[in-house]
Amino acid sequence: MSTDFDDLVRDARDTRHLAVEAGAVAATGAVLARLLPGREAQVVADPATWAAAGPQVEASLRRAGVALRPCRVLTASPALHADWEHVEALDAAFAGHQAIPVAVGAGTINDLVKLAAHRAGRPYVAVATAASMDGYAAYGASITRDGSKQTQPCPAPLAIIADPPLLAAAPPALAAAGYGDLVAKVVAGADWILADALEIEAIHPAAWELAQPPLRRCIADPGGLARRDPAVFADLLTGLVRTGLAMQVARSSRPASGADHQFSHLWDMEGGGHAAAHGFKVGIGTLASAALYEQLLAEDIDAAVAARGPWPGWEEMAERIAALHPQPAIRAVALEETRAKHPGDAELRRRLALLRERWPALRERLAAQLLPARTLRTMLAAAGAPVDPALIGVAPAHLRASHERARTIRRRYTILDLAEELGTAGRWRERLFAPGGFWGGPAGVSAR
Ligand SMILES: [Zn+2]
């Protein structure tokens, strides 16, 4: 894919340089020397990402005349995660010098360095070792503290450097996860269209242009990941970085995340741990969201609005939400988040009137944005991502319950909210989990 990257970073707030090309890693030093002349650098990696690119990056920095602090290789047993203790370790390391951190790694290293660099009051450079998630260019770092994952606001990297042959050499599960995170933008985009049409959250045109128009092309060849075709890895990474830039421009994760991510966040909160890759959970969430959209597109909206029962006031809704979440910490989040978006009766009537009025055009726009859930399932499977929820530890009954819970843990408006407000959520769930429904295959596992 030919992309004018200078044009891409023009609207970005933090990122001044983006390179996705063979040989990009060897130019890291030249990029740093140009953007921040005279500054020292310190590479931060974990043992695997150090082995993948650390020596190459250091050699490039030396060639460009950049003075180097000894590299910092973070380790943890059994695996390194973006946990708060490592941010504190980097705080201590960065306190002793003014060197520019060069994060050599994927999601974990990037998130840790992003936050620690910000806390040390300096920019950083990201060298991507895997096309595993959309966080490289995102504003904010996702860090686990006291058992819960939180996004901490902090600037995106000054430069992002990705070498497609290097990405293609990473463990295959990483790109499969990145593919799941990117495919999610199909349904996340539909959620944004919905929120825009119902005058809940307007589409940010520059962010939309960054993330959405190239999306179909970037997800077109999932089989190329298994073939380790560097061009396909370049497309995947470019799509992920474009979404991150869209988040920078919008200063919000809306361009990257809708109901798809709400499923994933819910499972993160319920599991409290690091069980499955982010992109794998998001991939299953994407299928759930796409299947719900198929129900919406098949709905007679006038009839649904006419048949809708009374809308609960906040007190009643709060009772329902409390009953949905057995864990007190999640219940508290759900009450706060849902309250922030709970419409009054008059507001809901206005919203549903808008929906009826705009439905023919909105339906057409959604249909053009979306892909069938079964097509998305085939694409995810071709990329090597799990398409059976059981493979990420979500049993059928849990998936079904998640359809009710996921809506409540974030205030962002999605298809899950419309289903609730239209009064069709229960009926759609019945259909999706019945035999022959998308989730209702033989013995309750997803049909292939
Ligand atoms: Zn994501």
Account of the protein in words:
This protein has helices at 5-9, 28-35, 47-63, 84-95, 107-119, 164-168, 172-197, 205-211, 215-218, 223-226, 230-250, 259-271, 278-297, 301-307, 314-324, 328-341, 345-369, 373-383, 396-405, 415-422, 425-433; strands at 17-20, 41-45, 72-73, 100-105, 125-128, 141-145, 148-152, 159-162. With 448 residues, it is of the alpha/beta class. The chain has two domains: 5-170, Rossmann fold, CATH 3.40.50; 173-204 and 252-444, Dehydroquinate synthase-like, alpha domain (Up-down Bundle), CATH 1.20.1090. Strands 1-8-5-4-2-3 form a six-stranded parallel sheet, sandwiched between helices. A two-stranded antiparallel ribbon has the order 6-7. Mean pLDDT is 94; it is low at 443-448. Bound molecules: zinc ion. Residues 133-134, 181, 256, 261, 278, 282 line the site of zinc ion.
Quick structural gist:
This protein has 448 residues and is of the alpha/beta class. The protein has helices at 5-9, 28-35, 47-63, 84-95, 107-119, 164-168, 172-197, 205-211, 215-218, 223-226, 230-250, 259-271, 278-297, 301-307, 314-324, 328-341, 345-369, 373-383, 396-405, 415-422, 425-433; strands at 17-20, 41-45, 72-73, 100-105, 125-128, 141-145, 148-152, 159-162.
How large, in whole angstroms, is the Cα Rg? 22 Å
CATH secondary-structure class of the largest domain: Mainly Alpha
Uncertain segments of ≥5 residues (pLDDT<50)?
443-448
Order of helices and strands: HEHEHEHEHEEEEHHHHHHHHHHHHHHHH
In CATH terms, what is the architecture of the largest domain?
A: Up-down Bundle
| Structural class determined from secondary elements | alpha/beta
Number of helices: 21
* Lateral arrangement of strands in the main beta sheet: 1-8-5-4-2-3
